[in-house]
Amino acid sequence: MNISSKLLENAIEQMASLPGIGKKTAMRLVLHLLKREPEEVARFSESFLMLKEKSQKCRVCHNITDQDICGICASPGRNRALLCVVEDIRDIIAIEATGQFSGLYHVLGGVISPMEGIGPTDLEIESLLSRAATGEIEEIILALSSTLEGDTTGFFIHKKLAATGIQMSIIARGIAVGDELQYADEITLGRSIKNRTPYERSLPLHK
Questions:
Q1: Backbone torsion region of residue 185, taken as left when φ is above 0, otherwise alpha when ψ lies between -120 and 50, otherwise beta
Q2: Does the N terminus or the C terminus of the chain have fewer Cβ atoms within 10 A?
Q3: What predicted TM-score, i.e. pTM, was given to this entire model?
């Protein structure tokens, strides 16, 4: 791509470094920003600088927040006996968009993946076990991607919590095998949460 301005070229390269954005899309976005007023571009830039500087992980669920505890954990209207375990913050956004879940969340920060060198100690599993030990939680929903890594992580957590007496469930397989939760449409994801099943039924011996 032959670009006459080094400044424009640098801006396009930075925009294209974002996932899912190719060079043509990056160029279109950068040229659009170039047409906007300086104040608008400054606000745009400032929002990302502030996000990077001020955001942190909720000390309870590990969601992104600008406070010590995120708005979901702090909300008095949430069902504190119901906990949904997800891999990633994007999964919380996807589930919240369905309007079908009123409990709390726990972000693992990934899934067990020996091929990538990710083990249980690399995830927020110990903090999940600590939350389970409080006696406040009655049901834990495993809302993990239906991949081998997601299933392995779910089985590991199930074994760790088996003695607690907490009801364990898994979202219905409206999510296709191999799919990541964040890419499911809101209707399918909402139904998968509402129609969740006991975790034991997902094990091979029960199929």
A1: beta
A2: C
A3: 0.80
Q: Determine the Cα–Cα distance for residues 198 and 38; give it in Å rounded to an integer.
A: 55
Task: Say if residues 85 and 128 touch (Cβ distance below 8 Å).
Answer: yes
Set out the domains of the chain in order of their start, with CATH numbers. Answer: 6-54 (1.10.8.420), 64-206 (3.40.1360.10)
Q: Buried (b) or exposed (e) across 177-191, using 16+ Cβ within 10 A?
A: eebbbbebeeeebbb
Q: Within a 10 A sphere around the Cβ of 30, how many other Cβ atoms?
A: 19
Distance CA 180, CA 150 (A): 9
Q: pLDDT tens digits for 106-138?
A: 999 999 999 999 999 999 999 999 999 999 999
Q: At 85, give phi and psi (nearest 5°).
A: -95, 125
Residue carrying the six token digits 């997800």 = 86
Q: Which residue has the tokens 């160029």?
A: 27
DSSP letters of 3-24? -S-HHHHHHHHHHHTSTT--HH
CA distances from 74 to 16, 80, 83, 84, 103 (A): 37, 10, 14, 16, 12
Q: Which H or E run contains 54?
A: helix 38-54
The overall longest dimension of the chain from CA atoms, in Å, is 66
